[in-house]
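Observation: inputs received (chain + (2Z)-2-iminopentanedioic acid).
Thought: call the complex predictor directly.
Action: predict_structure
Action Input:
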Amino acid sequence: MDINRFMASLEAKHPGELEYLQAVREVLTSIEPFYNQHPEFEKAGILQRMVEPDRIFTFKVPWVDDSGNVQVNQGFRVQFNNAIGPYKGGLRFHASVNLSILKFLGFEQTFKNALTTLPMGGAKGGSDFSLRGKSAGEVERFCHSFMLELWQSIGANTDVPAGDIGVGAREIGYLYAMHKKLARANTGVLTGKGIDYGGSLIRPEATGFGALYFVRQVLSQHSYGLAGKVIALSGFGNVAWGAALKATQLGAKVVTLSGPDGYIYDDEGLTLEKIAYMQELRASNNDVVEPYAARFGAEFYPGEKPWGRKVDIALPCATQNELDGDDARQLIANKVLCVAEVSNMGCTPEAIEAFQQSDVLYAPGKAVNAGGVATSGLEMTQNAMHLSWSADEVDAKLKQIMSNIHDQCVRYGKQEDGRIDYMKGANVAGFMKVAKAMYDQGFLG
Ligand code: 2IT
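Observation:
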C-alpha cells in the first residue's frame, strides 16, 4: 500500500473533506505494516471498501420556531460499516455539522465499536441545528421533524442512533416518542434513553467513567497511579461531567473546565457540588462556563484553552482538533505525563506527533471514549432481553470492557522498549477485527 497515493485519490474523490481525510490518514499510517502482511486484504479491496460509507442519507428538517416562522435545517445519517453488527453511533446537533465531520465520526465509530468487543457496526448522524438559545418547545418540534425523516432508515437490528454533542437525554426522549408514533412499536431503537423508558443505568456517566478507567490502566501499565494527579479538562457537557466525576472519585484533582467562551481555572479542584453545577450550565443552552467563576470564586480566562496550565494529565473532552501543536508543545514543556482524548479525534496530527516524539503517554479517542458506546451496546442487550441491570452490574461490565480495550492496545501497540503506542494499538486492533469480518463475508461484506 502506498499511503500518499491512496490518500491522493481519496482526496480527489472527496475534496475539502478535511476531518474525514485526517481520520483516514491516521488509521492508514498506523496499520500499514500489518496491512502489508495480509495480501489477501489487498486482493479483496478491503481498504478501498472500508474508507467509503455503506450509504448516506441527507434530508430536509423543516420546523416552526416560537415566533411562528418556518426554519429549515439539514439532517444526515451516515451508515458507515455493518460488517460486525447493526450500525451504531450518535447524532450530533451543532452548527458546525457537515458531511466531512459526520464521515470522520462514522469512520472512527466503526473501529471504536469493534474495540468494545460487542457486535456493533459504525454510523453517525445529526444536523446543523444549534441548541443555543432555543426554547424547549423549539427543540421538541425540531426533534420530531428530524425523526419524521430518519425513522424509515433505522431499527433495533439495523441502525441504532444515540446522543453526541447537542443530543442528550431530553433530545433522545423527543426523538424516541416520535419514532414510537411512526413505528407503532417500542423497540428501544435509540440508546441513551431515560431510565424509566428503557434506558440503562450508568449510560449518562459511561463515556467519562470509561475514560478514567482506561487512563488509570494506562498509568498503572507504566507504574504510575491516578490519586493526587492534577487534571486539566476541556468542555462542560455530558462527557466532561462524567470524566470530572470519576476523576474526583478516584482521588485526582480536576482544576479546569471550558466552553466556547473560555476556560475556568479552579485552584481548589472540582467538588461534587461544582461538578453537579456543570449540568446546570449545560441545561441553560447558553453555551458558556463563565458563570462558574463568580459562583465558586474561580478564575475565568475568556477566549483561551486550558492547555497552558501545568498539570499531570490533560483530557480533551469537547470536540475534534481542540488540542493543536502549540498546545501540545506547551503541555510537554510543562511536563505533562498523560494526554487521553475523551473527545473524538481531540488532538490534531501535529499534536499527536509531538506527544509521540516526547515520552508523553498519549491515548486516542477511539480507545479512551469507547465506554459510552459500549454501554449503549449494554442498553441494547437489556432492551432485547426486556430487563434491566443494576448500576453495579453495568459498571462492572464497563470496567471489564475498558480493560479489554487496554489489553488489545497492549497486544498490538507494544514497542521494543516496552512502552505502549496506544494509537497504533487501537487502530490495528480495530482494523483487524473489521477487516477480517469483511473478508469472511466476501466482496459485499
Ligand atoms: O462518539 C460516540 O461514541 C458517541 N457519541 C456514542 C455513540 C453511541 O451509540 O452511544
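Thought: report the result.
Final Answer: The longest helix spans residues 391-413. The longest strand covers residues 70-81.
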